[in-house]
């Protein structure tokens, strides 16, 4: 069994929370006491149906306004997979939350209201899925019950959306259209008989059959050293282990490696996970590595395979999503956190702003406001070891930290 | 081959990564230990993260004085066996010093009072990171909690102004006086925790397994009949039942469930088939729909 993280995006009234509530209900993931609470509240509000959105909208402010304002995580599992849904809000002012939710997801669901079709917000949702290179995207055309389950409406929306698809720069993305009614449960978990013209799978059926190759980006192995383990006990007197998580590909005992930034060569001697030794450490495992030679390695260094070096540079250009109310301006100084490595950075220039709806670039921009996306060039006080985001999701991304407030104020994807 | 393929392994790898980030990014971290299954799981993950070195931070238990005796006995044995450092701070001391007032009546509990004792202890030891076993699946407000969650000088959670968390990157930058609550098992469900306990063969307090206990019924829930700690009306009759506990909080706010599950595999099976959520047996959440969010804003774990 594996974990699949899914980001959802949709506008305020597209019924996103209802869709998630429906999935939980139909997979019997809602417990009796939660279901009773939903029934009680739905009744109090005078609805003649169950308001499944109550299952996910957690914060008081959201329940009052009836909208989602932050990323909520929802968990459920089937016999085949465990799922984590990052439920993000769809408003323009929440672009940053969408980027956040999508950053940890391998698949995404974009909701479209069948009555409204492709709207400006749909462009933005799809743009973010593209920017973050989500491999599998489901376009769920919702509220089909309100358009008489019309094939014509479905085809029109599909055609409009396909026009957007021609504009994206990540062409390998897999896109699947599914007509659904979250309220009535059509094509969500179970296939409906109300749309015999639709030959595809129900939403959950589609997610169930996705396998690793469909959802994970493969790259070259990168091993940022997180922590140096030196027990200094009698039994482990000379032990010097490098703890970290393997990204992008596998590392094996005997591999010829290079430690960055010193460019010292060595070989992997042992791979430990707790008290057991392994021949290979696969991607995303948190292991401890020992090396053949006694060399000086500390936190922030990176172990890579010989012949597979990342770019080592004090300058880079990246697409940045700005997340703070204070503007990013040329000359501004920040901390860039690239993986576990922190360096001081200066904004060299803003190259251009990117309209997140595929309508083009804006040149001559003097600052970035919250939720803006732009190409920005940074200068660093010491080199980092990076890959392009399109080749390596982990080693090609970073966050920007404000030196005054310590807040995370932006995210970047290296070009 | 050390693989990440199975669900529980990927959660374990994520949690170990978080433990190591805490040790690397903070000067004085502490692991908040309640004696419950979630914090016992955290201890196991910490041991695995730093092996063969010792866990580089102490455990701290905020003792309400109303814990099940089995929990305390278990705690002391665990700490001794693993050679860990344990700090204990008592809610009773906060009461004696007049900092908090004991609740009275039918639903009296010391659960709320823990917050003051906890915040005082954080200040006393100047802890800058507190590792806790909260999970996002437990409760609606917790579903929005970050893995690194910043608390201000008053220990408060500003839920509308949380730092975004992208990819694996954890931003632990804070100002003097602030601290970060860290939740390594954020993405675990109750069933995941139990499956892990089973897989790793981790010892847990006996009250998690079915046993005979003197109890009484109130509001459709089963309460431990301990006259010292749990308030009971005269008409609430004491009976003996086979029960176990799904969460182990304060005796005054933790209800039991009827159960025959006396071994770990039977418990896992029971959780898998259960139709009531874990916190459904926590009376403190039922006070109002927004109970958890309000407590968290005030600095509760």
TrEMBL record, chain A:
Membrane-spanning intervals of the chain: none
Swiss-Prot/TrEMBL keywords: ATP-binding, GTP-binding, Nucleotide-binding, Nucleotidyltransferase, Transferase
Domain of life where this protein originates: Bacteria
Assigned EC number: 2.7.7.4
Pfam families: GTP-eEF1A_C (PF22594), GTP_EFTU (PF00009)
CDD domains associated with the record: CysN_ATPS, CysN_NodQ_II, CysN_NoDQ_III
UniProt GO BP: sulfur compound metabolic process
Gene Ontology MF terms: ATP binding; GTP binding; GTPase activity; sulfate adenylyltransferase (ATP) activity
Database matches in InterPro entries: CysN_GTP-bd, CysN_II, CysN_NoDQ_III, G_TR_CS, GTP-eEF1A_C, P-loop_NTPase, SO4_adenylTrfase_lsu, T_Tr_GTP-bd_dom
Annotated Tr-type G domain residues: 1-222
Protein name from the UniProt record: sulfate adenylyltransferase
Organism of this sequence: Algibacter luteus
Automatic annotation (TrEMBL), chain B:
Bilayer-crossing regions: none
Keyword set includes NAD: no
Enzyme Commission number(s): 2.7.7.4
Protein name, per record: Sulfate adenylyltransferase subunit 2
Enzyme category, top tier: transferase
Family (UniProt): Belongs to the PAPS reductase family. CysD subfamily.
Keyword Ligase: no
Organism: Algibacter luteus
GO MF annotation list: ATP binding; sulfate adenylyltransferase (ATP) activity
Domain called Phosphoadenosine phosphosulphate reductase: residue spans: 29-255
Entry keyword set: ATP-binding, Nucleotide-binding, Nucleotidyltransferase, Transferase
One example of a Gene Ontology biological process annotation: sulfate assimilation
Pfam families found in the cross-reference section: PAPS_reduct
């Amino acid at each position: 069994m594996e974990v699949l993280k899914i980001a959802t995006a949709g506008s305020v009234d597209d019924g996103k929370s209802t869709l998630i509530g429906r999935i939980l209900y139909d997979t019997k993931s809602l417990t009796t006491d939660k279901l009773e609470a939903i029934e009680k509240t739905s009744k109090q509000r005078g609805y003649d149906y169950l308001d499944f959105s109550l299952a996910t909208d957690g914060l008081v402010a959201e329940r009052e306004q009836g909208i989602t304002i932050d990323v909520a995580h929802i968990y459920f599992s089937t016999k085949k997979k465990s799922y984590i849904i990052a439920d993000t809000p769809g408003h323009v002012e929440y672009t940053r939350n969408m980027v956040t939710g999508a950053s940890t997801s391998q698949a995404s669901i974009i909701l479209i209201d069948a009555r409204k079709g492709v709207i400006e917000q749909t462009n933005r949702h799809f743009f973010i899925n593209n920017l973050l290179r989500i491999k599998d995207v489901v376009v769920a055309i919702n509220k089909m019950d309100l358009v008489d389950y019309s094939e014509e409406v479905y085809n029109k929306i599909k055609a409009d959306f396909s026009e957007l698809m021609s504009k994206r720069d990540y062409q390998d993305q897999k896109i699947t259209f599914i007509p659904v009614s979250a309220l009535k449960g059509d094509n969500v978990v179970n296939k409906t008989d109300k749309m015999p013209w639709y030959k595809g799978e129900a939403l959950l059926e589609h997610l169930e059959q996705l396998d690793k190759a469909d959802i994970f980006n493969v790259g070259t192995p990168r091993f940022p050293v997180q922590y140096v383990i030196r027990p200094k006990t009698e039994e482990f007197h000379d032990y010097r282990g490098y703890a970290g998580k393997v990204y992008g590909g596998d590392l094996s005992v005997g591999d010829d490696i290079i430690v960055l930034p010193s460019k010292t060569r060595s070989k992997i001697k042992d791979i430990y996970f707790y008290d057991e030794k392994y021949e290979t450490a696969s991607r995303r495992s948190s292991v401890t590595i020992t090396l053949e030679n006694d060399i000086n390695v500390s936190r922030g260094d990176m172990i890579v395979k010989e012949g597979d070096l990342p770019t080592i540079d004090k300058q880079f250009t990246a697409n940045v999503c700005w997340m703070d109310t204070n503007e990013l301006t040329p000359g501004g100084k920040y901390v860039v956190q690239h993986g576990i490595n922190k360096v001081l950075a200066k904004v060299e220039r803003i190259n251009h702003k990117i309209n997140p709806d595929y309508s083009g670039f804006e040149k001559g921009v003097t600052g970035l406001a919250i939720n803006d996306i732009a190409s920005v060039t940074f200068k660093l006080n010491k080199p980092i070891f990076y890959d392009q985001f399109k080749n390596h999701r982990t080693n090609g991304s970073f966050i920007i930290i404000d030196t005054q407030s310590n807040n995370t104020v932006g995210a970047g994807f290296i070009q | 081959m050390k693989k990440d393929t199975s669900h529980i392994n990927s959660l374990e790898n994520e949690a170990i990564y978080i433990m190591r980030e805490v040790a690397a990014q903070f000067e004085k971290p502490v692991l908040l230990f309640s004696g419950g299954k979630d914090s016992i799981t955290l201890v196991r993950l910490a041991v695995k993260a730093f092996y063969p070195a010792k866990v580089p931070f102490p455990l701290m238990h905020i003792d309400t004085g109303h814990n099940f005796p089995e929990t305390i006995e278990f705690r002391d044995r665990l700490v001794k066996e693993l050679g860990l450092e344990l700090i204990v701070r008592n809610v009773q001391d906060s009461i004696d010093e007049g900092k908090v007032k004991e609740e009275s009546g039918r639903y009296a509990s010391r659960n709320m009072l823990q917050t003051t004792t906890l915040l005082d202890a954080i200040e006393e030891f100047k802890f800058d990171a507190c590792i806790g076993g909260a999970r996002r699946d437990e409760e609606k407000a917790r579903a929005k909690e970050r893995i690194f969650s910043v608390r201000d000088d008053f220990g408060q959670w500003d839920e509308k102004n949380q730092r975004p968390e992208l990819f694996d990157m954890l931003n632990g930058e804070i100002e003097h006086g602030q601290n970060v609550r860290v939740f390594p098992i954020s993405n675990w469900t109750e069933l995941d925790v139990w499956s892990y306990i089973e897989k790793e063969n981790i010892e847990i307090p006996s009250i998690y397994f079915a046993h005979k206990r003197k109890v009484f019924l109130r509001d459709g829930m089963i309460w431990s009949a301990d006259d010292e700690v749990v308030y009971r009306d005269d008409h609430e009759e004491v009976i003996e039942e086979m029960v176990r506990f799904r969460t182990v909080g304060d005796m005054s706010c933790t209800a039991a469930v009827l159960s025959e599950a006396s071994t770990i595999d039977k418990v896992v099976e029971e959780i898998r088939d259960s139709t009531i959520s874990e916190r459904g047996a926590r009376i403190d959440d039922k006070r109002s729909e927004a109970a958890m969010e309000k407590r968290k804003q005030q600095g509760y774990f």
